[in-house]
Amino acid sequence: MTKAPIQKDWEEREFIESVTLNIQKIIDFLNKFELSTRNKLATVNEKILTLERQVDYLEASFKTVSE
């Protein structure tokens, strides 16, 4: 016994809706992940810049002392 065309159409629509919903969930996750990662990288970058400035200061101080 084959399915009625209307029933088959509804099943296909439900499947498409399910796939669409799951794709949207993946997109939302990726967007949140990207934002979180961007913020964490910005924080790490700030810390690295601070350390670089401190190293530059220390290098300049040692050069002055050794001269």
UniProtKB/TrEMBL annotation:
As for subcellular location, the record says: Cytoplasm, Cytoskeleton
**Subcellular location, principal:** cytoplasm
Signal sequence, start to end: none
One Gene Ontology molecular-function label = protein-containing complex binding
Annotated Gene Ontology cellular components are:
cytoskeleton; SCAR complex
Question: Its GO biological process terms?
Answer: actin filament organization; cell motility; regulation of actin polymerization or depolymerization
Q: Which UniProt keywords apply?
A: Coiled coil, Cytoplasm, Cytoskeleton
Which PANTHER family does the record match to this protein? PROTEIN BRICK1
Q: What family does this belong to?
A: Belongs to the BRK1 family.
Q: What is the name of the protein in this document?
A: Component of SCAR regulatory complex
Give the originating organism: Heterostelium pallidum (strain ATCC 26659 / Pp 5 / PN500)
